[in-house]
Amino acid sequence: MSGNIKFEDLHLHKDTDAISKALYQKERVLCWIMTTPKNLDVKTRVVRDTWSRRCNKVLFMSSVTDPKFPTIGLNVSEGRRHLTAKTMHAFRYIYENHFDDADWFMKADDDTYVILENLRYFLTSQNKSEPVFFGHHFKTIVKQGYNSGGGGYVLSKQALRRYGEKGHDPKLCHPDGGSEDAEFGRCMENLGVRTVNTTDALGRSRFHCFTPEIHLEGGYPKWYYQYDANGAKKGADSVSDYAISFHYVPPQKMYFLEFYIYHLRPYGIVSGTQELNRHVKVKPGTLIQPHAK
Predict the structure, then answer these.
(1) Tens-digit pLDDT profile for residues 228-246
(2) Is residue 68 domain-resident?
């Protein structure tokens, strides 16, 4: 599978997608992707052409405006030392320009892969009016912990409102410096926005800061055992069947994931809504609420 493959080239199964379509309308997700000019043709193009198409709205945030891609240029210098500023500016821009366009607001990197259907499924058990944010939970640095930037994190509408109203105060939210995800997590804590457990009913992880292979095989770096709030588990029994995100996914592997998730099927096995109801018959437009977690 070459790097030039297009999503449109892949055969589409005629699946019954009434539930995912209903959730698309009910749980509106704005995705913003942190990127750089040098990554547009290598990484970001693939994100644009694969999973981000399933967001209700997607914005690509960079240091330079590129109307052809398109990207939104923020008044921030490039480099890891300024990732905090890029995130703070991006959420400020979204609050001021797109607050009414979604109910949930997700930040992801240009090497993050997200399964939007599983995100929306998880969000049906959450309340957008509560000051909460979700992701791969780290338990260090910030009192309540914070969510991995690479694994992607999601703000409720109320969380974004609090940031928009008070996040400009440098005493609450550092404008730049430090580790982006930790600093934003500290900002959320100072604004009274809570981290929430995102594991499924069996205690399996949904958001992931590494590739699927790493979470299946283990071999984590030493720091991860101190950071991960759920015990740095590994293996197929530790990853949710309804996983939401993975990080450090190179462009070619994004195409592979598109194929495995949306096209490869074991004949004779019906999958996709078992956790909702194994025997229900879904009519188009019907919304099934998930079991409480």
Answers:
(1) 999 999 999 999 999 999 9
(2) yes
